[in-house]
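Tutorial handout. Part one gives the primary structure; part two gives the three-dimensional structure as C-alpha cells.
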Amino acid sequence: MKHILLSLVILFTLNLTAQETYKFTTVTDLEATPVISQGVTGTCWSFSSTSFLESEIIRLTGKKIDLSEMYQVRNTYPAKAENYIMRQGRAQFGEGGLAHDVINSVEKNGLVPEEAFSGLFAGETAYNHAEMVAVLEAMLKTYVDNPGRKLSKKWRTAIDGVLDVYIGKNVSNFTFEGKQYTPQTFLAMTKIQPKDYVNITSFTQAPFYSKFILNIPDNWSNGSFYNLPLDEMMTTIDNALEKGFTVELDCDVSEKTFSSKDGVAVIPENAENNVKSLRGIYPEKKITQQFRQDEFENYDTTDDHLMHITGMLRDQNGTKYYKVKNSWGTDETRVANGGYVYFSEAYMRLKAVSVTVHKDALPKSTATKLNL
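Part two.
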C-alpha cells in the first residue's frame, strides 16, 4: 500500500512540474536592431540576414544602422531569373532564399541604408509581393516556353522593369549622415567583409569537416556549407554567443510545437503534450544525429524560414533556450516576447537546418579542422 501511495505522490508531483509555466532567465542578450515585419513576402532570408549584418555592424563599429532589406531583394531577383532561364525552367524560382544569397549580393552590390532604398512607394506602409511574384513567374514561364522560337536578350530588361515598378529603381549614390556614399563605399564604412562569413550544417550524407552543396529547395544558388557533427554545430552556436557574435539561422517552423504567438519552440518527448508544451514545461525528446538525419530525409524537417539568434536563456529547470529574432512584426495579438521566439536546445538540435557565423566565432578546434 505504501508503495502505491508513494507512486501516486511521485506521479502527482511530476504532473505539477510538467504543467509549470515557463520562467526564463537571460544568460546572454546581444544587441540587435528592432523587430520589423517582412509583410506579405517570402523574403525572411533578407530580413533575418540583414538583421544579422546590422548586429555585426554594431559589433564591428558601434554604429546602429537600419539597413535596407529590399536592396538585396531587388538585386537578387535578377540572379534568380538568370538561373531559371539558363536552366530552361528546371530550377527553383520563387521568393525563398538563404543567408548566403544576401552575403553574395552584399559582396557584389554593396550595402545601403533603409532611408536610401525602402522598397516602398508613396502611400505604402507594408510589403506585399504577391502580385509581383505572380507576374515574374508568368513572364519567366513564357520565356522558357519560348513562343518566338528564339529567345531574345530583352527578357533581362523586362524583368528589371517589373522590379523597378514593384520595388524601385536601383540606387547608385546617396547621402547618409551628411556624407555621400555609393553602395560599395557604404559597405566599406560598415567594416563588413562578406568573405568572413561561413555556413555551417550537420548532416550525414556528406563527410564531417568537408564542404558540400546542401540540396534543399531554397539553395537555388548552390551555396556550400561546412559539415559538422551535431554536437559541434551546437557548440559553435554557443561559442559565438558567448564571444559576442550573433548567429543567422535557417530552420523549420512548420512544427505544431513552434509558436510565435506563445513565443516558444520545443520538441516534447510525448506528442500528446505538443499543444500543452507551448504554455508549460514538459520533458523533451533527446535529439541524436541519426534522429535529426531521419527527420530531414523523410521531409519532417524542411528549410522554411530564416531567423536571427541574438541570445541565450534558461528556464527554471536550467534547460537552455535560444533567443531568436523573427520578422513577423510586434503585434501582441500575433506574437509574444516582442517578436522573439525562444527555441529550446532540443528544437535547435532538430530543426536548425544551418547557421551562418563570422569565421572568428568558430571554436579554435573547429576552425582548425575546417582549415579556416
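Part three, for discussion. The first helix runs from residue 2 to 18. Residues 149 and 304 are 37 Å apart (CA to CA).
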